[in-house]
Structures are given as structure tokens and as C-alpha cells.
Amino acid sequence: MSERTTRIGIDVGGTFTDLVLHDPARDLVHTGKLLTTPDDPSLAIIAGIQRMLAETGLAPGDVHSIVNGTTLVTNTVIERTGATIGLLTTEGFRDVIEIGRETRYDLYDLFLEAPPTLVPRRRRREIRERLDVDGAVLVPLDEAAVATTARALVEEHGVEAIAISFLHAYRNAAHEERAAAIVRALYPDLPLTLSSQVAPEIREFERTSTACANAYVQPLMRRYVDRLEARLAAIGFTGRLYVMLSGGGIAAVSEAREFPIRLIESGPAAGAMAASFIARHAGLDRVVSFDMGGTTAKMCLVEDGAPDHKFDFEAGRVRRFVKGSGLPLKVSVVDMIEIGAGGGSIARADTTAGLMKVGPRSAGSKPGPVCYGLGGQEPTVTDADLVLGRLDPSYFLGGEMALDIDAVRRAFDAGVAGALGLADSEAALGVQRIVDETMASATRIHLAEKGRDPRRYTLIAFGGAGPVHAFNLARLLKMERLVVPLGAGVASALGFLVAPPATDMVRSYVARLERVDWAHVNALFVAMTEQGTRLLRDAGADPATITLRPTAEMRHFGQGFEVPVALPSTTLGPDDVPAIRDAFFAAYRERFGRAMEDAPIECLSWRLACAAPGRDIRMDKGAASRAGATRDGTDAAAACRGVRDVLFEGFGPQACAVYDRYALRPGATFVGPALVEERESTCCIGPGSTARVDDFLNLVIELA
Fold first, then answer.
1. Number of H-type helices and E-type strands within the chain
2. pLDDT digits (tens, 9 = 90+) for 453-467
3. Boundaries of each Hydantoinase/oxoprolinase N-terminal domain copy (predicted)?
4. Less crowded by CB within 10 Å, the N or C end of the chain?
């Protein structure tokens, strides 16, 4: 039997499920897009796989591996539809997740809505045990109480999963592990989450919150994975199933079963990894990734070919963009912003104020925008794009789905346009203006917080709706260049295939820099190296190719929060202290603009990033030949297939040449206004701009 080389990346979004198939042995890249089936996402996954295999003449047995990412975890936390869970915690710390940091995210709101806890007080139970700050036992674990409490939670309260979070368990996990063994002896199939495993870091509020969130989504994710594996096996798939972590790395599916909270941003992370891949190929070192799908828009800063990362995240915020209004999680995530601005975002009128509002409520895939003809009644961003001429009603999804523009006009008349006394086109232009300004404002804030100027960056746009709105977004941000890759509508799925097997691990050990027990630190790095190597081997990586990047989270003694500092090695000693001190001052100065070199330094946590090389994929191979295009020829006129009127803000109706994306070859150039259509998305190019096709078939658009 010949070696299998076919890999498939699948991004399950709120509206569409995107797929990319890559087979280097056959020089083949193939894409697919279909509506998500929210009641059972595996149905759309299986349907998409079967269709792509049929279109490429492959069989399920030819597929080496599948990489999947999903919004299931995010949606479960936001919608509060997770499992009934219980919490075992140290005596006296039952209310940690409710007390939180004892701060208000809005000081002046007398009716402040607190973020709801995932575990009500009646299911939070105290266990007599206690460790000191160094992990030494002060009070032994009451094993009988663990058994009695577990029985009560399961038999009286019907819990489906249990989180265990004891004080100082990050320093010594023995009590948590023993409690877990007792519960497993009673209920072998009950999902358990130990805080010392999911987030072995200092700060009991964040650690307990992360453990509870993991337990909250664990039963649901296990059912999802089990169902998906069963359905893949039923169609004849015998390869490996992998998942994308929120930090942008590929991991074995066991990670999804045991630590599903690490997948909370897996789909958006894939988009950032795709943008990083495209930026490296295009030779761009300063990029803003813009991923606009059917439900949300995601923006991420990519510098030197890699996205920013952070190691804390707030999920399910009561108020968008307001720090402290959500559930704090200690997980590794790609640092980005995500807002409720997608093709399915619903436009409505506030008749009291006489204003139009767009989003964050979305039509999703059920019922979807009005133009889909699936039952949607309220006009959306996609409906507005159709009215403005940006979308071809007969070529949506390559002609697979016809769009009903008459129904859209009726919906605008009955809804926002009628309520505000506007013509359909005026209302549609208002929808576009609002959603684009919302995204531009969020991007400005995100970059300003990092001390970056958007005018010095290139925008890489993808997602089904991204290329439609990218030109206007770049114009609002005063950017000079916009890049739209081939297959932009499914670029997140491409991210699953080019992302490296990678993982992040952390251990907390608090000590002043001059008093660090370096033997203990080196032992922590040895343990993390062994764990990381094992996880990446399970994810298909060659151990010989794994690289290690150690960091420490440090602060001045007495400060409340820390900064990440790169370390010279995983084997450290007293001789490394001067270099570590200098690295801390450099990191501190970059963030705060000054350094206090006389103040003592404290180390809190020690982190190790492990990664293996990702794959290299040329999207132009296979995708263009599928449409019958040739590799030579730079005349863009040959790719033009007509003219369509498009309404542009400030310019009025403009006659736009419509280009076939698959017929545009490297070197082709043309000027806007223009539309470039491919199966999964349409790129809208405004007046006065110049577009060219580079060697990788990216559209590079220079704004006037």
C-alpha cells in the first residue's frame, strides 16, 4: 500500500463549514464550503468531506489525517449551554469564583451585571485539606469527605462532570490527584478536571475558573469527538484526527477530550496562522490579519511571520470589550480581537433615537440572511452587500446557492429602510458604513494598545465576507496595501494544514530572582520538555525537529502583574542571572517605557513553548487548474467576464469589471473599481486602486 499523503483541514464556523484538501503527491489543492449544521456539526463535516473526495477522485481510505477546529466550546460558554457540574475546593474557598478579584468592571453602574458563575453555590463543596505556599501539607486530605461529597453531587444534584481545585495545587498536586482517584473509583466514566493539570499556575481565582470552564464543556466535547470519529469511521476514514488549539498549534484529539477549554479560540487561531503563512510567502513583516465570516470578524497583529500570543483570556463577556466582565481563563491563545460583525449580522432600526444598528446578533446558518431563502426575515450585512451590487446573486458559492434579491428588498422595506424612511440602497450603504466603522474602530483600539500605527501595516483579508469589506476597512485605517489570498473564503481551513504541531506548558514557582532554586527550575523544564515532546509526537511531529522556547513571567517585587521574559536556555544557573535581569528590563521598558533597575525582581511562572515545523502549501496549485486556467498569460482582460454596477460610498454607482479569480495569472494588473469573484468569496476593489497578482496568486491591492 502506498503512503497516504492527503490531508484535510476543516473549520466549523457559526455560519459556514470551510474545507481545504491538500495532497502534495498529486500536486492538488481543493476547497469546499457549505452551511454549518449547528444541531450536529459533524453532519456538515461528513457531507463536505464526501463531496470533496468525490470531486477529486479520492476515497476516504486515501486520507492521511484531518485537522478540525470548531466554535463549539466558545458557543457553549457564551450561551451557557454546558454540562451540570460540581466543584470540590479547599475548605473556606467555596466562593472564590464568585468573589473574583473584588473589582467592578464599571465603577459607576449601580445595576452592574456580574458575570454569571458556571457552578451555583449549592454545587460548590468544601473539602478539609490544606497546603502551604511551598506545597507542604498543613492539613491532610479528608478522603472520606471526598467520597461522600462526590456521591451527593452525582446522586442528588445530577452533575455530569466535576472540577477539583485545591489551594496551592499548582505547587503540589498530590491532594487533587488523590481526590480524583477516589472519585474515579466511584464513578469511572465521570469526566474530571484537575486545576493542577489544566492550569498549573498561581492565582486561585483564575485557576479555579479555568478548571470549572473545562469541566463545563468536557461532556459536550467528548460527545462531539466521539460522534465525529464514529461517522468518519463509517465512511471508511482510517487516518488520524487532530485538533487546532487556541494558541495556533496542532494537537492530538485526546487534548479535545481532556482539555477542551484549550480549543476555545481554535477557529480564529487557524485564521491567524493562515495569515502568518501568507505573510511569510509574500515577504511582509508587518501585517494585520482580517478574518470576516458569517458571524464574527477577527483582527490579529502578525509581525515577522508570527501572530502575537497571550496566556489569559476572558470568555463570555457580559459587555463586549470591557475587561473584567467575563470568565477569566488561563489558556494559551493567539492575541486577537473578535467582534460581532459578520455577513450574518442583523441590521435593525432604533426608532426611538432614529438610528440604525448592526450586530452583534447574527442570523447564523439557521435561518441565515434573507437572501439565502432559508427563512431569514431581518436584513443582514450579506443582504446589504447584495443590494449594493457587491455579490452576484447567480454566482454565490460558485452558483451552488442562488440569492433572492427581491426578498431582500422586501425585507429592507419592511424593516430598517422602512422604519427610517430610506431607500433600499441608502439603507444598505448605511449597513456597510456601520459595520466597516465598527471593525475599523476595534482594530485601531487593538493596535493602539500595543503602540502600533495601522498606517504602517498591510491588511491581509480572508473569510467569506472579508474580501468584500477589506477595501473599505483598509481605507478607513489609512493603510496603503491590501492582500487577498487565493481561496480567501476558506483560508481559516488552510490555517489548519499549515499550522505547526505546537503546545505551551507552564509551571508556577515563585521566588526572588537572586534566591531561585535553579535545580528546581531545571527539573520543571525537564518535566515540561518530556510532556511537550510526548504531546507533539501524538500530533504527528518528528521529535528530532521539535524546538523549545523557554520564558519566565516576572515582575518587580510587590507588583500585581507580570511581563513575559525570554530565557537563554532550559538549563539555567546562577551565571545566567545577569542575562535574565537584562532581558526583564528590556521587556519591562518596551511595555512601560521605563525600567526601575534598583527594584528587586520576582519570578512567578516558568513557561515552555514546544513546536515542530508546519507544512508548506501552494494554494495556486490545483485551484486554478480546476477552473481550466493556464499558468501563462498576464492579460487581466482575458479574465474579465462582464461588468456590474456597484454602489460605493462617496463615489455613487460605479461600473465594475468582474474578473474570474481562477483565470488571473501571476503578473496580471488592473485598476479599480473592480470585482474579483471566486467560489467562496468576492473581492471588492474601490475606485483609483491598482491590483496585481503576485507569484503565489495573491491579489495585492495598492490603495489610492
1. 18, 35
2. 999 999 999 999 999
3. 7-185
4. N
